[in-house]
Fold these 3 entries.
Entry 1:
Amino acid sequence: MIMGKRRELESLLGYIIVRYSAMIMDFAFDIVTVRHIIISLMIGFMLGIQRDISHYQHKRNGFAGARTFAMIALMGCLSAWLNQEIEFFVLVYFLIVGSFALLS
């Protein structure tokens, strides 16, 4: 019974890999992109840590810290990567964000 379920799962995973591998490989998500993402996360996290330390030393409450800066850096890195992969991505991104800013 368990071996039958295992074979069924292996065949399903094989089907998914064969069907979607071409679509996954269309994006040039290679080691350089991963390195850029890691570097941007590290820089954003370091800036956030510095901001947290500054707020702690001056005994103030801060709005954004290490996690927020890391997330903003990640979004910037992914936006730059998507702009290389998808034509006019930044233009569409700014139109969407701008429309949200006008509505709020």
Entry 2:
Amino acid sequence: MSMFILYSNAATTPPALSLDFATGALPSGTTLTRASTGTYYNASGILSTAANNAARFDYNPSTLALRGILIEPTRTNLIPTSVIPPITDTGTTGNWKTWKAVSTAAATTS
């Protein structure tokens, strides 16, 4: 269950703020901002992509039970050009398949 409650000082006073994020919708009066798209499991258990600034209510893909709102911290990709280098098949040695990385220049000229 995803719930945020801000309590007052007095034990008998009701909470000053109570937000329930386990309903599948943002509580009235709340907004969400996110600078990029994000993935989540929808109510059908399918991995989906949410647009910028759209809330992601995550579901368990096996049981389809609502897990609540999905909020993640900001991240920075430290290796922005993290791609798999091109490879070529160099044949088979015994029962093993062998591969060799190819430089980008060699891959574009061949």
Entry 3:
Amino acid sequence: MMSDPFSLFQLPRRFDLDAGLLRRRFMELSRQVHPDVAQDQNDAIERTVELNQAFAQLSDPVSRGLLLLGQEKLNQTPDELFLDMLVEQREQLAGDHVDAARLELQGVIDKTMQWLTHSFNSFDAGKRNQVLHIERKLSELKFTQRALNKPL
């Protein structure tokens, strides 16, 4: 079982991580456990896999949010109105308004990230309604990131 990624990189359990610090810690630890320098090859390979998985989990805001919620997958989906907006934006990405659509989607991502940062900073795991709302926002973030990055 993988250890806590936040502990592994000696980072605070927060949604708003310093991406540069995460990357520096990942590189430092990767050099220490790399199979070319480690004496125990099997342990080095296992540690490298663990580091890569932890880095991927903390690098992705949706995965990081799920980790903070203590969940492995999203249990909420965006509402119909939100999905309709994404469909419209995807259509604009395929049409003549690519730059405007990309900017709008990036704005949605930025606002959602701000909302999630604020929500996690005041998070109370005992408030089921808050957990459900955070899950829905994480789902919206996941769908918006896909819409922005998915090739047409």
